[in-house]
């Protein structure tokens, strides 16, 4: 468990220094800094940062029908799930002369960071954009790095078009976070930045928090599988590998009550790894941050899981619902042999933007609540204030704030 904590120590001090310098350049130089850093890091010279709407439409029109169909199902499921999270404003006038309430309003403008480079993540587009749209966010701005030809991945463009992204800009890295946080000549400042990225992007989001809101500081991906004697070693191994292939810092853990399952998984992992195209990444991830833990019983297994607080937790046991209520710390829980983690990544509906590095103890998955703000309001009649005024004055006197007390006193004396 301690080795998981050490993943944070991979960050060197110079990374923060680089992040701060880029952010300051974007703040001071605007678009000029964006173009400069895009050329420096992405090796592409751009004349215009914005992706025209027509380009999104063309990508959609030429996309493979099977991909469009998959996106439609995914979008529908994600919408259905997140619409159930919607809250209502409320008002309470149960006491004579007193009205209390809470107003819920969506954020006006949100920035979504979508990783680029070698991999394309249209699923990240859907998971970040759809809850914002369900919440009623007026404007969603997406930023993503261009390829060497200065283009945005077409699969990402199609997902953005179907999810309802309003504007897309071809920038990535720290400079993209800075543009969203501070605004430039081309890009308006947003209220919140969401979306995954590398360590530079994560630290940039951390640095701009306060100028804007952010979703969370996400670390490397992780999965913990609890398996009993009924678990299928092929399923367990495949699921451990599905997270290990993300990157070398990903963590894959099996906690089991069965010695036999532990041995079978060790053998099966070696067999399946040979068939994967990211073999080297998987092997390093499993060697450094993968572990099989054998425990006495399910109570011990759940105790270990709650202590780790994994991003993804699979209950691959006979009666998973029996143990669901005992899970206290997990980003998302997958129940049974036929609910693998990738189901949640792409299609089921619950959000796949989840707390990592044990932060499931106090963070939640991304959702509609991340894209709203709440204001309370208070109304007291003269008579209602008179009934409680002396108590307020006493409070103010205890705190030594006689101006507060006087604000009440002048009304009582009227």
UniProtKB/TrEMBL annotation:
Keyword Metal-binding: yes
Coiled coil: none
Active-site residue numbers: 311 (proton acceptor), 312 (proton acceptor)
Residues binding substrate, per UniProt: 221, 243, 246, 312, 345, 399, 404
Sequence positions that bind Zn(2+): 243, 246, 345, 404
Catalytic activity reported: L-histidinol + 2 NAD(+) + H2O = L-histidine + 2 NADH + 3 H(+)
GO MF, one example: histidinol dehydrogenase activity
Class of this enzyme: oxidoreductase
Pathway terms, separated by semicolons: Amino-acid biosynthesis; L-histidine biosynthesis; L-histidine from 5-phospho-alpha-D-ribose 1-diphosphate: step 9/9
UniProt cross-references to PANTHER family, sorted A to Z: HISTIDINE BIOSYNTHESIS TRIFUNCTIONAL PROTEIN (PTHR21256:SF2), HISTIDINOL DEHYDROGENASE HDH (PTHR21256)
Annotated function: Catalyzes the sequential NAD-dependent oxidations of L-histidinol to L-histidinaldehyde and then to L-histidine.
Similarity section: Belongs to the histidinol dehydrogenase family.
Name used for this protein in its record: Histidinol dehydrogenase
């Amino acid at each position: 468990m301690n080795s998981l904590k050490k993943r944070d120590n991979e960050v060197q001090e110079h990374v923060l220094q680089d992040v701060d310098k880029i952010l300051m350049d974007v703040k001071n130089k605007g678009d000029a800094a964006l173009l400069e850093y895009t050329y420096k890091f992405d090796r592409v010279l751009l004349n215009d940062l914005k992706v025209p709407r027509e380009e999104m439409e063309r990508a959609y029109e030429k996309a493979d029908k099977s991909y469009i169909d998959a996106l439609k199902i995914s979008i529908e499921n994600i919408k259905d799930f997140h619409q159930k999270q919607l809250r209502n404003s409320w008002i309470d006038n149960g006491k004579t002369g007193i009205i209390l309430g809470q107003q819920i309003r969506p954020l006006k403008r949100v920035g979504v960071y979508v990783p680029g480079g070698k991999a394309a993540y249209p699923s990240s587009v859907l998971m970040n954009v759809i809850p914002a749209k369900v919440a009623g966010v007026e404007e969603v701005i997406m930023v993503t790095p261009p390829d060497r030809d200065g283009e945005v991945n077409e699969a990402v463009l199609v997902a953005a078009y179907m999810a309802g992204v309003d504007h897309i800009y071809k920038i990535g890295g720290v400079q993209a976070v800075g543009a969203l946080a501070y605004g430039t000549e081309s890009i308006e400042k947003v209220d919140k930045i969401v979306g995954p990225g590398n360590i530079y992007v994560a630290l940039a989001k951390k640095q701009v928090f306060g100028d804007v809101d952010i979703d969370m500081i996400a670390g490397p991906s992780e999965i913990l599988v609890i398996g009993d004697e009924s678990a299928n070693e092929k399923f367990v191994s495949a699921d451990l590998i599905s997270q290990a292939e993300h990157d070398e810092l990903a963590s894959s853990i099996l906690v089991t009550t069965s010695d036999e399952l532990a041995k079978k998984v060790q053998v099966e992992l070696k067999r399946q790894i040979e068939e994967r195209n990211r073999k080297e990444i998987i092997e390093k991830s499993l060697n450094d941050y993968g572990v099989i833990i054998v425990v006495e019983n399910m109570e011990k297994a759940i105790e270990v899981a709650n202590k780790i607080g994994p991003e993804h937790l699979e209950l691959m046991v006979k009666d998973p619902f029996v143990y669901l209520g005992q899970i206290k710390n997990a980003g998302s829980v997958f129940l049974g042999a036929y609910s693998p983690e990738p189901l949640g990544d792409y299609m089921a509906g619950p959000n796949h933007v989840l707390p990592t590095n044990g932060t499931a103890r106090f963070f939640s998955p991304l959702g509609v609540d991340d894209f709203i703000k709440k204001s309370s309001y208070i109304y007291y009649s003269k008579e209602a204030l008179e009934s409680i005024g002396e108590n307020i004055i006493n409070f103010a006197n205890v705190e030594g704030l006689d101006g507060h007390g006087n604000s009440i006193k002048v009304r009582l004396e009227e």
